[in-house]
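forwarding from the other thread:

> can someone predict this with magnesium ion?

sure thing
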Amino acid sequence: MAIRIDGVTKQFGAFRALDDVSLVVPQGSLLALLGPSGSGKTTLLRIIAGLETADGGHVYYDDQDVTQRSARDRNVGFVFQHYALFRHMNVFENVAFGLRVRKVPKAEIHRRVEELIGLVRLSGMERRLPSQLSGGQRQRVALARALAIRPQVLLLDEPFGALDAKVRQELRQWLRRLHDEIGMTSVFVTHDQEEAFEVADEVVVMNKGRIEQHGTPRQVFDQPANPFVMDFLGHVNVFSGRVQNGKAHWGGVEVEYPDYPHGESREAAVYVRPHELDIERFEGDGALKIEVKRVNPTGSIAKIYGVSVDFGSPVHVELPAERYSELELREGEVVYVAPRRVRVFLPEYSI
Ligand code: ADP
Ligand code: MG
């Protein structure tokens, strides 16, 4: 089942939570909705589910317009961050719930529930109550419950948000395998980019009720559409510079920028990721002079914080551990940083 959202808007009083959102989720894909808190992710997911009605626009499942259909008639499974299980029901009964409501025959319920409990690796725990399970086990029960009705669409709203890092890591891997085995179309909300990048086929970055970018994890990370996406997806150095004649300049550094071939000089924001900067002891072409303020060698990456000698702006650099030990950097010394790669954004595209 493919999901198509066409020009959806949603207003809460005077506040526009979704502003003309259009999106296609291909059949069988796992798509992550990524964005800061308040950007409209949950609202969009609830509209896809039919738990919330849009003020304008349409939602299609394949070719069917389901905009006016209730959540129950859409045959979706959903899991929320705090999906309270029925506390007085054991694991088996929690998973069986949707099937009992739908009056599925007993023998069939038994068969399907046992299969699902096996799938989420909780066999032997059927008689336990939610209070007798760990957080990770409870979320797996919530997932099994969502899957019991054999949804064609699985919607998850920060399902692992309340769990600790190690359990999250395990569950997200496991969700990916489960998604592939069952062959559903899944939409997964998260504010954690690592989570999105690790499990999703496609990532949608949202901000203020709008979609900033939609692409594969790689596209979004390597070719951020605008400064918002670039900033949101990790630490960046931002320099103010200028573009002219196919080149960008800042602080004495010059790099190719063929997207701006014009002779008229314009202001531009130059973005460089910390791992795309190298450090040299000697001044070369296109290098920025910095004073090293702090070094933090942790594991395979050393983080270096410096300040531009000429401009006073902060510069973050990440070096591989070998390169770092080769350089023998000391705090307080002056070195030169050179970018391997930059992105330039002209003000009209910036936010
Ligand atoms: P996200 O999931 O990305 O954090 P939400 O979709 O939950 O964002 O919310 C988007 C914005 O809409 C927020 O500013 C939120 O306060 C507002 N909002 C969400 N639901 C309601 C509601 N039922 N009534 C009023 N405002 C709401
Ligand atoms: Mg939310």
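The radius of gyration is 25 Å. thats all i got for now
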